[in-house]
Amino acid sequence: MDPLHNPFSPGASSPPPELAGRTRILEQARITLGRIKAGRPERSQLLIGLRGVGKTVLLNKIREIAESMGYKPVFIDAHENKPLAALLLLPLRQLLISLDRMSRA
Predict the structure, then answer these.
(1) Would you say 54 and 20 are in contact if contact means Cβ atoms under 8 Å apart?
(2) Domain spans of the chain?
(3) Hey, CA dihedral for 84, 87, 88, 89, is it positive or negative?
(4) Structure pTM?
(5) DSSP state of 53
(6) What whole-number distance in Å separates Cα of residue 24 and Cα of residue 32?
(7) Which long-range contacts (CB under 8 A, 24 or more apart) does 59-64 make?
(8) Other beta carbons within 10 Å of 32
């Protein structure tokens, strides 16, 4: 394909014009989130692939789906040399503060 007109342009978390071929993954995420919300058991999903294939773009789309269903997702970027507690502390604190503000409204 002509590189000038090719819609694929890899970049750090930059969404492509269309998530072609990802419908099944996104639908499974909707089902999983819906079942969890209904109190039913469900398996988790694991997105794996080489660098630049769109894992982060899919995670961002799944986060949007979760938010539209009333979830409060938190993005945590894992670093090899940081303990889990340090990675979780700030995002979870921010989430708790936002939930507290919502309860007062």
Answers:
(1) no
(2) 1-73, 74-105
(3) positive
(4) 0.76
(5) S
(6) 12
(7) 60/13, 60/15, 61/15, 61/19, 61/22, 61/26, 62/26, 62/29
(8) 18
